[in-house]
Amino acid sequence: MTTTVQLRKIVVLSGSGVSAESGLPTFRDAKGLWNNHPWQELASPEGWQRHPETVQAFYNERRQKAWAAQPNAAHAAIASLEPAYEVVIVTQNVDALHERAGSTQVLHIHGELAYARGTSERRHRYRIDGAPIEMGQFCEDGTQLRPDIVWFGESVQHFDEALMHVSDAARVLVVGTSLAVQPAASLARYAHHSAEKVLVSLDMEEVPRGFDFMRGKATEQVPALVARWLAQAPQR
Ligand code: OAD
Predict the structure, then answer these.
(1) pLDDT digits (tens, 9 = 90+) for 199-232
(2) DSSP for 153-167?
(3) What is the DSSP string of 31-52?
(4) CA 37 to CA 161: how far, in whole Å?
(5) Is this model's pTM higher than 0.85 or not?
(6) CB of 91 shorter than 6 A to ligand 1
(7) Which of 37, 40, 111, 150 makes the best surface tag, with the fewest CB within 10 Å?
(8) What spacing in Å lies between the alpha carbon of 62 and ligand 1's midpoint?
(9) Catalytic residue (one of 75, 98, 108, 110)
């Protein structure tokens, strides 16, 4: 079956680099979170079972910092595309900076700091914004509340919906991700052969096929790209 591209659709696949200039850390750079903290202890169901207090405290601190951070020029530029295009953001980020910049369609495939959930399953979610989760705070199913974050070994969220959008978008922007984590990274490969495909990052070991690499800071490269895409927007 051949897919027809939607001329008005833009999909943005974003990672932690888009929030770096808002003061939030990335994962695999020298000062990245996983270079300074063992992900096996902080981002896995086994780590949670071994020492839930440590895991809870780690995400409480990340949530508080993410809530205090402000969207930057890259988030704002992406949000400014909406009057001219249908924009779907598929983000690996757990902060809410895309939404806070004004974007309305954001799929968080690795979960969200702004929500808590029960330990046994994801059926009950509670919006907590920047508030901490305390040990001893329970879900209505009686289990301890934990961050609504997808840990290693758990299933990503909204993947089929993300795949559908990336497959028929006329423009795809990948920004601020090393594309090191699956299945998120595989989404870039599903961009349509005729789509305009752009990757913005400080560096990239292997640029996916068909992508133009704009090397540089998200706050500089993304607004420049967005200005061009707005000037080229299809007439209604
Ligand atoms: P990484 O740390 O792997 O990659 C960040 C990317 O952003 C790198 O390619 C940097 O070059 C780039 N970058 C850094 N600062 C930038 C800036 N100012 N402008 C543009 N690019 C910049 O982080 P992610 O790819 O986001 O998952 O990591 C993916 C997942 O790994 C995360 O969602 C997280 C982690 O394990 C979970 O916690 C489930």
Answers:
(1) 999 999 999 999 999 999 999 999 999 999 999 9
(2) TSPPSSHHHHHHHHH
(3) T-HHHHS-HHHHSSHHHHHH-H
(4) 32
(5) yes
(6) no
(7) 40
(8) 15
(9) 110
How confident is residue 167, by pLDDT bands cut at 50, 70 and 90? very high
Q: Which two tokens stand for residue 217?
A: 């800071």
pLDDT at 155: 95
Please report the atom of ligand 1 found closest to the CA of residue 29. 2
Q: Which amino acid is at 191?
A: A
Residues paired with 106 in a beta bridge? 89
Question: For ligand 1, is residue 220 a contact (CB within 6 Å)?
Answer: no
Task: Please report, for residues 22, 35, 133, the alpha-carbon distance to residue 66 in angstroms, rounded to integers and kept in the order given.
Answer: 9, 19, 15
- Tell me how far the alpha carbon of residue 114 lies from the centroid of ligand 1, in angstroms: 19
Active site residue 124: no
Assign 3-state DSSP to the chain and report helix, strand, coil percentages, each to 5: 35, 20, 45
Tokens at residue 150, please?
A: 């997808």
Tokens of 196: 């305009």
Ligand 1 pocket test: pick from 173, 199, 201 the residue with the most ligand atoms within 8 Å of its Cβ: 201
CB 3 within 8 A of CB 159: no
The Cα–Cα gap between 38 and 61 comes to 16
